[in-house]
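Recall the central idea of this unit: under ordinary conditions, the amino acid sequence of a chain determines the structure it adopts. In this exercise we apply that idea directly, starting from the sequence alone.
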Amino acid sequence: MRYKYVYMVFPRAYSKSFLSILVLMCRCILYPGAKLFVTSGGKEQAAGIVKEKVSELCSLVPALEREIDWSRGVTQEGKDYCKYVFKNKSYFDNIAARESSRGKRRHGGLVEECVGVDGTILSEVIIPTMNVSRRCLDGTVHPEETLNKSQIYVTTAGWKNSFPYDKLITLLVRMILEPEKSIVMGGTWRIPVLVKLLDKNFIQELKQDGTFNEASFDREYESKWSGTVENAFFNGEAFDRNRKLL
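Accordingly, the structure predicted from this sequence is:
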């Protein structure tokens, strides 16, 4: 909530989507007239995540449910689109990571599973939607507000030498230079197991499975990005992914 730029690399069952949607709802309540978005690799995927988490949060915290205007035609929940409008005229919805989103205007947003989002679309279409700051109820604009151009990136680890990894390094450097604006966080499967969100037996069975892939496990549950040795002559993992053994 306190940072303009947040990058979170967490494994499954870490409640990363749950917490991120909670942040969007709190921002909508605290900043009247806020326009926020959620995007992901697929529009239907983003809509499914948002609907599931909003329903769960409203069930757990009825005060959040009472902040939303559930009037017919105001708040919308469809197969590939959902929009939650609050009583103070704030709202957040899901937008597609495609050219069709060009020209839309939002004040901040959440990029879900950014390893699956095209870097060019994110840079040229999604991020430019946040070029206008929120106008307060008295008509004034405060560009320094944390809400304005706020970006939350949530993902499991992926491959190095990719746009999501470059964005992670960019925000890591920014966290050092501007610690009040940017933060990068990460975690492993151990925390979800500790708080009973993930079954330890499930992790053990994954490791004992005959098809166990250490690199894949490191990405999905240890939050380690896969990559090659720096300045290597060729990418060994590219060979491994494409090799066919007789």
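The CA atoms of residues 13 and 80 lie 24 Å apart.
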